[in-house]
Amino acid sequence: MEINDREGIENGTSSSAESAGTGAESTQIGGSSRGVGSRVKGLASSAKEKASGIPGMLADGLQAGADALRQRRTSAGTEVAGSSVAITSDPTIAAVTDTLASGMQSSADWLRDADIDKLKEGVEKQVKEHPARTLLVALGAGYLIGKALRR
After folding, report:
1. Based on the domain organization, do 108 and 58 belong to the same domain?
2. 148: Cβ–Cβ under 8 A, 6 or more apart, which residues?
3. Alpha carbon distance 86, 63 (integer Å)
């Protein structure tokens, strides 16, 4: 009988004596699957909340960077804290710094004002209408980001 029981377990079948306790076990499994489902929903909502805060964090970082550039430009010729390179009062450098700071500021404003759903729809539309161009842009951006991070 023991050999038959082992074969039944290996084949996925069981005798009636073994299956007598499965009612309580299936209730526990059903209850735990509902618990897992609620955990997954909780994690998904938590991730969505965290993701909704990312544009604000990026905008704050861009704003801080723009402010730091403007501060360094105004303190030209003096040693900037944490920097071993003194910024000269060259008008070309000042113009480039202003342009960069303005671009960072406008990017921060755009991130704060952007509707993420509209942005998502726009990207989806672009991918559907021009998949090859989108792939090439993504590859180029990935390459440039990889080069920048490697340094």
Report:
1. yes
2. none
3. 23
- Encode pLDDT of 98-147 as tens digits: 898 999 999 888 888 877 788 889 999 999 999 999 999 999 999 999 98
Q: Which helix (H) or strand (E) holds 100?
A: helix 91-113
Question: CA torsion sign, 47 to 51 to 53 to 58?
Answer: positive
Query: 6-50, pLDDT tens digit by residue?
Result: 444 444 444 444 444 444 444 455 555 667 888 888 888 888 777
Question: Residue 49 region, left (φ>0) first, then alpha (ψ -120 to 50), else beta?
Answer: alpha
Contact 86, 72 (CB under 8 A): no
Provide the domain limits for residue 123. 115-151
The answer to whether 25 touches 14, Cβ cutoff 8 Å, is: no
**Number of folded domains that form the chain:** 3
